[in-house]
Amino acid sequence: MGSSRVEREAPTPLDGGWGWVILMGCFVITGFSYAFPKAVSVYFKELMKDLGCGYSDTAWISSIILAMLYGSGPVSSIMVNKFGCRPVMLLGGLLASAGMISASFAQNIIQLYLTAGVLTGLGLALNFQPSLIMLGTYFDKRRPLANGLAAAGSPVFLSALSPLGQILVDKYGWRGGFLIMGGLLLNCCTCGAVMRPLLGKIKKVPAGVEADAQELKEMLPSKPGKENNAAKKSKKPQKKKLLDFSVLRDRSLVIYIICKFIVVLGLFVPTILLVNYAKDQGVPDRDAAFLLSIIGFIDIFARPTCGVIAGLGWVRPKMAYFFSIALIFNGLTDVCSAKNDTYMGMVIFCVFFGISYGMVGALQFEVLMGIVGTGSFSSALGLVLLFEAVGVLIGPPSAGRLVDIFKRYDLIFYMAGGELLLAGVFLAMASYCCMGKKKRKDSPNVEEPDVEEEVNHANHDSDNAHQAALKDEES
Q1: pLDDT tens by residue, 12-49
Q2: Cα–chain center distance at 114
Q3: Residue 38: which residues within 8 A CB-CB, separation 6 or more?
Q4: Count of alpha carbons within 13 Å of 159, Cβ hemisphere only?
Q5: How confident is the model at residue 80 (pLDDT cuts 50, 70, 90)?
Q6: What is the DSSP letter of 198?
Q7: 3-state secondary structure 82-142
Q8: R_g (Cα) of the chain, nearest Å
Q9: What span, in angstroms and rounded, lies between the C-alpha atoms of 110 and 87?
Q10: Per the confidence metrics, is the pTM higher than 0.70?
Q11: CA dist., res. 89 & res. 330, Å (int)
């Protein structure tokens, strides 16, 4: 009997089972990460009165949270690659909660930037990215549906947190509201605790099989270039990079990064400033906060529906074009609603914005996974979020500055809508010109059969022969 060694196979996505628990945790994390920066806007009027600041000053709170959520992407990628998803998410939940609790004791706007902005934003970032990585690990065939259902956490939480925030402001003031919100964010730790790593099956490899495979590999003819490359690879075992910048060599990923940078300049502007706009138009506080709930309620159905459509066989190969349609739809909604000054007009805007915003939210990470795959998704997502962080630091504060200077809200809708339209048109044209050209260029090439495939086939035959010999010995 020959000796054998134990190996672990690459994990196979379950597309179910414990994956549904992972999906539920990702649902909650996505809800807090995306809904919280918008829901906190219901406190802005009270903050302006208590701390004596303007629209642009309060808008910085949401922008800093989003910037930390995006800008901490590389840090999150490095920590996930080094420590795993579960410990990073537990730490993130504690930081997010500590940030809001500390913010309840803030005495000026700068302290709010550091606590509610930087600390809470960093905590949400350390939860958000690992949850997406775990979702991509557990789902493959049902990944578009899983992404759509997880993305639905944002509108569900937006529908709940906005009216809840207004109730807390009316009853306990903004300090009491921040304190209670900090307690709610501890649920992120619970979600992190269920993120069980997906491990591959354990198999035993007989020691003689490797020797036979190596002998067969030497006997088979090989290409001179590949022989040298194989020798180099065998001498130098690959070390996993904490943050792989080589993904930026992919032209499709660069196009996606440019598009998302333009998108985040205007995507969050309407939702962050909508409540203040409604209150300035004489809408009661509860009704103004309810506008965000309308967006969230419509978004609840838009995201899973869009995820189902994205999973269809004839749509999935053209995901970039589908995403560009969603961006153009969102931009047109902003531009066409710029002159709305009645409550009914705002409600209609919220309905169409909820549909288009849900489409964007359901598709954005599915497009990225389709470009880089699950293996490079961690590094690619970290770099994408880093570039987006710059955009979210520019967008909402710039919109708030326009309102402070010109006292006109229609300008922010024109600005945000124009940026979304530009991003949608750019992505569609770039996908047609660059990505399509790349596919047409690669399709005629017929590669010669690889020696590696012959060796693998030989390995398989050798393995079968070795097992038959072992059975003969036992008998």
Answers
A1: 666 778 888 999 999 999 989 888 888 888 898 888 88
A2: 24
A3: 62, 158, 162, 268, 271, 272, 292
A4: 16
A5: confident
A6: -
A7: HHCHHHHHHHHHHHHHHHHHHHCCCCCHHHHHHHHHHHHHHHHHHHHHHHHHHHHHHCCCC
A8: 26
A9: 30
A10: no
A11: 32
